[in-house]
Design goal:
heterodimer, A: two-stranded antiparallel ribbon, 14 strands, B: alpha+beta, 3-stranded antiparallel β-sheet, globular
């Protein structure tokens, strides 16, 4: 059975193999064919006959395409001819001189290609390194508390801080807007048949206000709730695929005897590529005490992974630094092995630059090395 | 039947002549040519479009899509001022050719 529409479509498809026809031109030809078929149908042709006659009278598409192409082709001006001739001559001369010394030519071309490649690589690498943690809106107001302690005769900067320090800083200094303590623990997470060893991050509820990790699902304020847990996007996909897991319960096993049920209250959006620290699971810091009866928040002999402060006015930091000596004395009274020489606050904006010098810091310490790598790669490119 | 080469040579003045009478679209133009020549100027319909597009590119005609709810869209072609001037030149040239041929054939008849 002859189908007029599909025959017309098939005919129109033949135009697509020629560059000369754009959409408007093909549409114009289609309307021509349809008008012609209508006229032939009015003369009592069958649909098949009308189509065949109209196509026959239209002629060979290849010939039409040839004529059409000569219309769209740019006219050759004296200038374009001159440029073409020059290019032709230059190419000829270059190829001849390259072929005269093939080995030298290969070394030159290969060397130049390598240099360009390395330059592009260095540019990408440097851009990535120097934009590290740039996405945090409060990066100029947030500081990591570090201390210097004597290690084998040398002062070593350490990213940990005494456990009670955070709370005391907030009580003693009105200049501090927010504080956030961070503690990492290895646990076992169980959801239905999925059981994984994971690292969870205990943080104060201000964590998501101080750091810019926007949520894909859920509410950041839920971090204040002791039974809530916030996941990274990677973890959410690992356990739940593309499904929104907010409202689901997962079990955290701290050890073989103790465990707790947490409700998923948020999922973070995918972290930007240039981040020096991240998280998989976030739960409220106070859970440390709830699930570990031996965990004492007031114990000066113990450390917390990180204490971060946020100040509205960075010039206030000097006042805070000047008042840190009393904590040094408190700490040194109980901690004989690791005597604190001084405290120092490191701005989040430059944390990755200093990460290599900070022992036990939360920022991934490979980034200072990355800067060295950028310089080495740049020198390689220059050498080439 | 008029030869393909002669038909091709006359396409430009014929199209400009038809469009001088009023704007028209591809299918109507080719129908008009067939009608005027009693089907003696016969060439494939598709070959008209590259000529129309070349004339448009040269600025002798201009086109505009016309869209109506009740009928098919049409791409109407219209002669421009430059096209009208080109038609005058074409007319003169074809008149000269015609006069030369007439003179020759008159001579032939009288001889």
């Amino acid at each position: 059975m002859f189908d007029l529409e599909s025959s017309i479509k098939k005919w129109l498809k033949s135009f697509s193999s020629f560059r000369a026809f754009d959409h408007g031109k093909v549409r114009e030809m289609e309307l021509h064919l349809r008008d012609h078929i209508d006229d032939l149908l009015a003369e009592d042709y069958s649909e098949k006959e009308a189509f065949e006659e109209a196509v026959k009278e239209f002629g060979e598409i290849k010939e039409v395409a040839g004529d059409e192409f000569s219309v769209i082709k740019a006219k050759r001006t004296v200038g374009s001819l001159l440029r073409l001739t020059m290019f032709h001559n230059y190419s000829k001369t270059s190829i001849r001189s390259l072929m005269r010394n093939p080995l030298n030519s290969f070394i030159n071309i290969f060397g130049l290609s390598m240099a360009i490649g390395v330059c592009v690589l260095v540019y990408g690498f440097a851009k990535w390194t120097y934009s590290m943690d740039d996405f945090h809106k409060n990066k100029e107001k947030v500081y990591l508390t570090t201390f210097f302690a004597d290690r084998d005769g040398m002062l070593q900067q350490n990213g940990k801080s005494p456990r009670p320090l955070g709370e005391m800083l907030q009580e003693d200094f009105p200049q501090i807007e927010k504080i956030c303590r961070i503690e990492d623990r290895n646990v076992v997470i169980k959801y239905e048949e999925h059981v994984f060893h994971e690292k969870i991050r205990y943080v104060d509820s201000e964590f998501l206000e101080m750091f810019t990790f926007p949520l894909k699902w859920g509410a950041a304020t839920s971090l204040g709730d002791l039974n809530s847990i916030i996941l990274s996007e990677d973890i959410s996909i690992k356990y739940f695929g593309e499904e929104n897991p907010v409202g689901k319960d997962i079990l955290i096993k701290y050890d073989k005897d103790r465990s707790g049920l947490f409700t998923i209250s948020g999922v973070a959006k995918e972290f930007p590529d240039a981040h020096s620290f991240r998280f998989d699971f976030l739960i409220n810091y106070k859970n440390l005490e709830n699930y570990d009866s031996l965990y004492d928040l007031q114990d000066w002999s113990k450390f917390v992974n990180a204490t971060l402060i946020e100040v509205d006015n960075p010039s206030d930091l000097k006042i805070i630094e000047e008042g840190m000596d009393k904590y040094r004395l408190l700490q040194n009274e109980v901690q004989q092995d690791l005597k604190v020489a001084s405290f120092k606050f490191v701005q989040l904006d430059v944390l990755y630059e200093n990460a290599v010098n900070i022992r036990n810091g939360i920022s991934y310490p490979g980034f200072a090395d990355n800067q060295s790598a950028s310089i080495i790669l740049f020198l390689i490119a220059l050498f080439y | 039947m008029i030869s393909k080469n002669l038909t091709a040579a006359t396409t430009k003045p014929i199209i400009l002549g038809i469009l001088k009478q009023g704007k028209s679209y591809g299918y109507l133009i080719i129908k008009k040519i067939k009608e005027l020549s009693n089907g003696k100027m016969k060439y494939s319909d598709g070959m008209l479009y590259p000529v129309l597009h070349r004339l448009e590119k040269d600025g002798l005609i201009k086109s505009d899509w016309s869209m109506h709810k009740d009928s098919r869209p049409r791409k109407y072609y219209e002669i421009t001022e430059m096209g009208k001037q080109a038609l005058v030149v074409e007319k003169e040239q074809w008149s000269q050719v015609n006069s030369v041929l007439n003179q020759l054939w008159d001579l032939n008849i009288t001889s």
